[in-house]
Amino acid sequence: MEEIDMSHSFSSIIGVSPVLQATIDVSRRLARTSSTVLLTGESGVGKELFASAIHSLREGANSPFVAVNCAAIMESLAESELFGYEKGAFSGADPRGKPGKIELARGGTLFLDEIGDMPLALQAKLLRILEDREYYPVGGTRSLSVDCRFIAATNKDLARLAEAGKFREDLYYRLDVISLDIPPLRRRADDIPLLAETFLRRFGIVEPMPAQLITALTDYSWPGNVRELRNAMERLSVFAEDGKPRAEHLPAAVLRATGADTKPTESLVECSPLPIDGTLPEWLADCERKYIEAALAETGDNKQAAAHRLGISRMTLYNKLSLLLGRSSSD
């Protein structure tokens, strides 16, 4: 989840839904053990937040929490990043040597994110480390002890990767002893308004969300999970006028999926059938008047927002208000 408080405690995980609370309860139990834990779940659900919360509860705030994105490390540098290297280990290396992530995490937790993307050669060495609790730095002749807890995370199906030969089967079984699946946001819809409100406050928006916005948020499936929701709230805060968040400023994908982009011409207004008498210009003017009135009602008489909903400029709206409704721009 992107709702990350730097304290990294479970109290920073926002939500009251039963499925989330059940996940937190299991995580608290996992914090009591030093065993390796595998966190699974879709991208953006907050696996690192849970990992840091488990770490904080067991190890305390002063112990190191070292995160490694296995998908971002170049394969040629993976060993030196994880295990460190001795001085003179290879050309271009720091002449003083360099401690690896395992050493930096001593006394704390090493978080291996996106472990499904770890190179196969490195997977074999990681398995040995998990089993023997010792390793050799690159270029080293003396083994070092491992004094950290391992928490791994992935958004991939490791079992299928193992079947396809893309992930070591023995490492998968070693990691899968204690696993926890973090629920996607669509399974905890009750938390969406609370999360959205929290993010908006962080971006400086304190006005309450209108009902139309809440409906759009809860109707959307959020494939990018909490990260996507946070980004959407940042967008709302940028476009909010007078500090008021509105559904019309949601990302296009959310608007299309929920129907929140429906213009007043499609949702709020029905023009009367062509009358027996009267002219086409009179009929069109009546329809246009109804469209404008509907847009103004929907936006709380906010001229800029109404113009946006109608797809016209604010000056054009003012002209039409004067022509069709007899209202001045100051009304």
Automatic annotation (TrEMBL):
GO terms for molecular function: ATP binding; sequence-specific DNA binding. It comes from the Bacteria. Residues 13-238 form the Sigma-54 factor interaction domain. The keyword Transcription applies. It holds the Pfam family Sigma54_activat. Gene3D superfamilies: 1.10.8.60, Homeodomain-like, P-loop containing nucleotide triphosphate hydrolases. Keywords: ATP-binding, Nucleotide-binding, Transcription, Transcription regulation. The keyword Transcription applies. One of its GO terms (biological process) is regulation of DNA-templated transcription. This is AAA family ATPase. It comes from Cohnella endophytica.
